Amino acid sequence: MLKNTFIHVPGLGVKSEQRIWSAGIYCWEDLSDKEATFFSPHKREMINRCLENSVEHLSRGNPNYFGALLPSNQFWRFFPEFRESTAYLDIETTGLDFGINKITTIALYDGKAIFTYVQGRNLDEFRSDIQQYKVLVTYNGGCFDVPFLESHFGIKLDQVHIDLRYLLKSLGYTGGLKGCERKAGIDRRDLEGLDGYSAVLLWNDFQRSKNSKSLETLLAYNIQDVVNLEYLMILSYNLKLGGTPFAQSHQITSPNQPEIPFKGDEQTIARI
Description:
Strand content: 5-15%
Structural class: alpha/beta
Largest sheet: 5 strands, mixed
Helix content: 40-55%
Strand order of the largest sheet: 3-2-1-4-5
């Protein structure tokens, strides 16, 4: 969808883009081959320069260039082009205040492999691992996960960030991550009854009793979040295509869900 996008060009908005598409100009290359008579020569020159820069930055694999030019509610457009360098990210904490509370676990999924980080074990490895990725996908991460991570590690996460909370809301999906999942038909099975507060209780139980089942259940819950983020990202992208001429041609098929390396323990969940 990125190569079909024109609203990142300064001075062009949604209406201009619709007019370009209506003229049979569907991608950057088309604008070089066809005459858009509704642009002045000066405007046409400026557009061509911007598109030349776009081709260069896309070839260099630089999503930040497009993140600086596109409105954040349009970041979904570059998802396919940078999917291979995208990390789905979620954290669990001891509370909601990143100035006081601590990160307990982090789950990261890149569409191929699942990574987990645990306080007191390998949490610091996240600092270097996250640098491998150019795009972050979270749910409400702009308000929660990212500030927590930046405060804890003393780093700036300067990757382009797609926050699904707002993207899904624009599509009528509300009620928090779990509410969006239910509307999308996602079944968490044995983890269905768990929420953010349960994650705090599981960590506290693990710290107090050293019950490995509590930590495993917490990690299973944390990982389920990031695995589901990929499904919701693809769902959002496909739904957003509905307002474009590419609703059929650009659809992405959701992959099979990966096997989660941890399982929720029924007895622990019932006790918590």
